[in-house]
Structure formats: C-alpha cells, structure tokens
Amino acid sequence: MTTTLLVTGAGGVGKTTIAAAMAVHSARLGLRTLVVTVDPARRLATALGLDTLGTEPQPHTEEPLLWAAMLDAGASWKAVAKRHADPDVAERLANNEFFIAASQHFPASQSYAAADSAVTFVQAKAWDVVVVDTPPSGGGIDFFTAPSEMADLVGGRLLRWITGGPIPGRRLFYDRAARPMLRVAGSILGSDLLERVSEFLLDLRTTYDGVSRRGREMERVMSQAATVVVTTADPAPVQEAVRFYRELPAVASTPAAVIFNRALPDIWIEASTPDGSSPELRQLVEWWSLEAQRQHDVRREFSSRHGANVVTVPWSPTPLTDLDRLAALVGRDADLPWESLGIGPDSVST
User: Fold this and answer.
1) CB 238, CB 302: distance < 8 Å
2) pTM of the model
3) Could you tell me if 344 and 6 are in contact, meaning their C-beta atoms sit under 8 angstroms apart?
4) Spatial contact of 323 and 48, defined as CB atoms under 8 Å apart
5) What is the C-alpha to C-alpha distance for residues 123 and 222, in angstroms, rounded to an integer?
6) Which residue in 18, 19, 41, 107 has the fewest CB atoms around it within 10 Å?
7) Where are the alpha helices (DSSP H) in the chain?
8) Which domains are delineated in the chain?
C-alpha cells in the first residue's frame, strides 16, 4: 500500500524544502519514495541538487530509492479533457482558448491539476511513499477543496442554466437552432465569439460525470493521506495554518503535525553578552532574544489552542541543497511523528 504525505501551508514558508527533506529521509529509511511539486520556480529541483525536473518521475542519481517530478498544471488539464470527454470533444477543449484561460485563471485550477496528477501517482502503487508539495494557492486549502470545486464548475447551476437540459438533446438543439442564430449575431458583432463560448460551455458540460467521479476518487485518497502543515511564527502564515484546523476536517484528515520552520532555538531566549561588549552587540543580542521568546510563545499558544502536534525545524542561514543536511533537517532531532505519518519500516513494500 502506498502512503501519501501531503505537505501544505502558505507560500514562502519553506514548504518545498520540507517536502524534499521528508522525501530524502523516507528514502533513507529504505522506502521507495516519490516527491512531486507544482512549483514553477523549480525550487524542488534546487533543494534536491538537481539541474532539471520533468513531468515524469525521474530517479535521483545519488539516492537510489528517491524519485522526483514537477507537475505541469496546463498539461494536466489537457489530460483531464482527454480522460473525461469523447476524443473529438477532448481535442476541441484542449485547444480552446477559453479552456486554456480557465486552466490558468480558475482559482483552484493549479490545485485540481496537482491533486489529479498526484492521485494518479498514488494509484500507480509504484512507490511506498508519495510526498506531495501542494500549491500555496488559498493558503494550501485549495488543494483539498479543488475536486468538489471543479465538479461545481462543470456541473453547477450557472453552467446548467446556460447550456440547458440534458446534453444530447441540448447539443441537437444547439446544432439546429442556436448555432445559426449565434452566427447571425456574430456577423452583426463582427465576431464569432458567442458561438465559440457556447461551444466551449457545451463541451465542458460533457465532462461532468467523469470529473465528478474522479473528484470522489481524489477526495478518498486525500481522506486517507497524512497531512503536514508548514508555517513560520510570522502572523500571516500562522493565520493560514489556523485555517486548516477550521476548514480541513470537512475535506481531509486533521493535520498530523504542524512544522514551525526557520525556528530560532529556545536557548537564545536567555542569551547574554560578555562584559565590555559594545552597545550595538548588546542591542542585537537582546533583539534576537526577544524574537526567540516571541516564536516560543506563538508555538506554545498554537499547540494549546488547537491541540496540534507542533514540531520545530531550525533556521538555516544558507539554502539547503545537500542531501545529508536535508535528511538531518527532519531527522531524529526534529521529533516528527513518523509512525502517525505512515512512514516507517512497516511501510516497505514486500
């Protein structure tokens, strides 16, 4: 059985680095591990010390049990069209400018494409562990709600009202009556825009059954996955982390852990300077001491208020692109609940 680990949270908190670190650690436990991301900045490749990262899983040259891939949201949407529509309709959708625009600008489009591709990898059962670096849109919540939102998009009341009744009859009506009228309107307006929009909406509507069925599969995988929320002690990321405890239980399991990344060590709280130190140095040490205390208080309050399993990952002054440092980042000292994440010796395929 494949263990699915969803690493989520707001943007800019080091989520991709944490996902890479957890994947390296998992691989070194003897588990065939795949880590995937939709990050267009290719931060996962950088974190793993790779020059490039493709849409198909590729093995890491230095870690025999580690694979990595970067999902292409646009290509994934085309795959959605081909999977859920007749071949001729799928071809029209894939090349339709409105479909392309929807795949780029629909708020949950990247999240839906990422979830669809990630679930495909999980269902392949080729890996013991699949680590998913979820897109940061909506603070990470969109990844979990995208399947139902996509079904609502292609089968919601607005689209049903525009396209009318059952698709077969509506298509016949469109071909025999609506299309000629739209062509007349287009000749007046000097454009076939209305006809192209109507054709797109009708084609999109035909994918509803498949999209709805696929959405239920995706939600089932998510409900069985382990979720880790990554944040920092800064106010905005913490508020996004709080959202997971308010909204996530409705669509997925409660987070197994909340990782406070870039944490200052508690020992700095009592830091002091030797006698004779300059005023500038004393002021700097005092500032870092106050910041370490603030971060400690934020973590304690978060854990107390939400009953969260809080884990800290230390701040690093340099980017982590060394596999040994990555593995150590979430290793034994980080005290991550690996067993509750489904990652351990019993996860190895036989």
Assistant:
1) yes
2) 0.80
3) no
4) yes
5) 12
6) 41
7) 15-28, 43-47, 73-84, 87-94, 97-105, 109-124, 142-155, 157-163, 167-173, 179-189, 193-205, 208-224, 235-247, 279-306, 323-329
8) 3-149+214-267+274-347 (3.40.50.300)
In one-letter notation, the amino acid at residue 137 is: S
Q: 185-217, pLDDT tens digit by residue?
A: 344 444 455 556 667 777 777 777 777 888 888
Taking the C-alpha atoms of residue 92 and residue 130, their distance in angstroms, rounded to an integer, is: 33
With beta carbons less than 8 A apart as the criterion, state whether 111 and 143 touch.
Answer: yes
Coil, helix or strand for 4?
A: strand
Cα 10 to Cα 234: distance, rounded to the nearest angstrom? 11
Angstrom distance (rounded) from CA 277 to CA 121: 57
To the nearest 10°, the Cα dihedral for 18, 241, 1, 112?
-100
Rounded Cα distance, 159 and 172, in Å:
17
**Residue reference for tokens 């529509």:** 85
Rounded-to-integer distance, Cα 296 and Cα 258, Å: 14
Structure confidence by residue, pLDDT tens digits, 69-95: 988 766 777 777 888 888 888 888 888
Residue 219, both tokens: 């939600």
